[in-house]
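Protein entry
_____________
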Amino acid sequence: MWDFDHCDPRRCSGKKLARMGLIRDLRVGQRFRGVVLSPKGTQPISPADRDIVLASGLAVVECSWARLDDVPFGKIASPHERLLPYLLATNPTNYGKPWRLNCVEALAAAFYITGFPEYAERLLGVFGWGDAFWNVNKDLLQRYQACTSAAEVAAAQEQIMQDLETKYEEVRRDKDSTDEYGADWLTANPNHQVEGDGDDEEGSGEEAESAAVDRITSDLDAVKI
């Protein structure tokens, strides 16, 4: 993990993993031959990356979503930079938001997709809300797991997003036809929330976590993939 100290160390998922000895820090400029999850990647991670992860490991950049421009991505380059496909965050800070995964969610997603579910579950198990990530993203992750290449993952992601958009519009039309107050159903669906600038840090509180999971699960059921 490349850690740029953007987050509160008491709430940062990457730092918590490091304190528990489940992840190690990398220096800027340090050579890394494994897969790096980076917004600078040009292709999504896929099951085809399994051998690279097995041989050389997996790395992530721990930083704030609001400060991506401050990260010297050119100095943490790898021959195997990868993007994560469409998934929903379930951490308390960004729950329900597409793409806004924190450090542990990103690592877990990559491990699930490349065929190492035991590693994903070990990391997520450190967090009280960790089970929600698989419960909410199970259908998505299984579709990506069934692919054999980055191109297939990209195609699956595109189809998923098209299906979500189509089915969401159908749900909205049905709701609008019976909603005398003209409620804005678009904002109720996490797949259409505008991404904020909040850091990818952990929050706390069992009630907030439970409410987050219930809300996401309910919305996904309404727009079932």
User: Anything to note?
Assistant: Residues 108 and 120 are 4 Å apart (CA to CA).
